[in-house]
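The following record pairs a protein chain with its ligand, zinc ion.
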Amino acid sequence: MNNKLLIKKKERNKLLYSEITKQYPWLLTLLKENEKISLEDIEKLDRDQRVFIENVLQKLLLEASKEWKPDSDVFVKVLEGKERIRCSLCGTPNRYIYYIKNKINQQKLNVGGDCVKEFGEIGEWMHKNSTNIIKGQVKVQNLAKINKHIPGVESIISRWSKIIDAQPIYIPTDISKEYLELGLKATQLFEEILDGKGFKERSIELTHIIKISEDYIKDITDYVAKKKSNKFTATREICKFLKRTKKEYVLDMINKDKGEIKWRTAPRIGEKEFLFLLKEEYNNKILNEGYEITGVNLDKEGFNIINRDFDMINFFAKHSNFTLEFGWLLFDQNIDEDFDPLKLLNLCEVSDEPSLDTIISKIKKNIYRKHIRIIDYDVAKNSLYLGDAALNEYLKLNLVEFVSRYKILAFYEEEKLHKKLIEEFKQAPNKITKKEYYRDKEAASAAEREFSNNRLL
Ligand SMILES: [Zn+2]
C-alpha cells in the first residue's frame, strides 16, 4: 500500500510549530503543502530526503518535543459544551485542553489529552499531573450548575449544624438528631454533585431536603422559645464552658436530663452567668439563716460568704463543694433536710488576715475557761501556741490549719470538737516546756531583727 501514512496530521503540525524543523527548508515546504504525508508523497522526493524521512524523522520528532513546556501552572482547562475548542494538532474539539508553549519561539498551542502525549516526557507528565487541576475545575463548574438550581447551596450546607450551636440554649439530641442527619445527607449529595455524579436526581433530592429542613428549624426555634425562660436550662455559654474545660461528659449528662441542669450536674459547672444565678438563688434560701453570698470568685469558681452576726468574717466556699452539699436547696427541694450552718462552715475557707485574727480571738475567748488555752498567735507568721500552764506543756501549730479544723469553736459551743482539740493537744508528740516556748519566741524575734538589720544595710 503506497498510501501508508508516514507522517500523521498531528506529527506534521507539531513539526510545523517547532523550531528545529526550520533547519530543513525542503521538509518545511513539504509539510506546508501536505496535511498528511504518505508513501506516495515521498516518492517524488530525492533519495537523501526519502532516507531522512524513513530514518531520521522519528528522532526529529523526539528532539522537537524538547522545545515545549507547560504554558503555566494551570496548564489544563476543562471546557463545557459550546466552549470547547479544537486541538491545534489534530483539530478535534476537546473538553480537556492542555496549554503548551515553545521555549524558543514562544509559540503557544492548545492540544487535547491524546495529542499532549505527542510531546514526549513533558507531555506524559502533563497528562499524568492534570488530574487534580481537572478535578478542581470540574468542581467549580458543578458548583455553578447546582447554584442555578439552589442559589447559595454551599452556605446553606455549611450553616446547617451551626444553626444548632447558635441557639441560646443547649438543644438535646432527641430534638436535633433528625435535623442533623438530614444535614449529613445534604452534605453527601452536595459532594457527589460536585464530583460529577448523576446531577438530576441528586439536585431534586437535595432541593427536597433543604425544603423540609425548614420545618425542623421551626421545631427547634419553638422548643427554644418554650424552654429558654427556665432558670436551670443549660445555656449556650454553659455548653461552651464545658467544651472549653474538657467536660464533655457533663454535657452528655445534661443531654440525658433533656437539657436541664440537675443537682448531679450543677457542681461541675463553673460558668460565670451560672455562678451569678446560683448566688441569687442560694441567697433566697440562706439569707434568713443569717448567711449571705456576697460575691462570686470566678478564678476559684466559688462564693464569698459572710454571716452578719460574725463580725464580717470573710468565708470562701468552692462552688463545687457548696453545691454538692447544698444543691438540694435549689434542685431537689423534696429532700427532707434542714440547712445546717456547721456543714457550711466546715466547707468554708478563711484566708484574709483580719478574718483569721477575728476567728482566733473568738476561739481564744470561747475556750478560755478550759485549762488548755491559746497562749499566743501571730497571723502574719502563721503560727499559734496552745498551752497548758499547769502541766508546763506548750504546742506550736500552723495557724491556718488550726483555723480550718476548729473555726466552728469561734461561733458555736461544740463540745465534741472541743474534746477533739484537747485530745489533739494531749496526743501531740512534739510538745515543749514553758522555758523552751520562751526560747523559741526569743529565737524567732532575734532572727527577725537580724533580717531587718540586714535589709537596712
Ligand atoms: Zn489532538
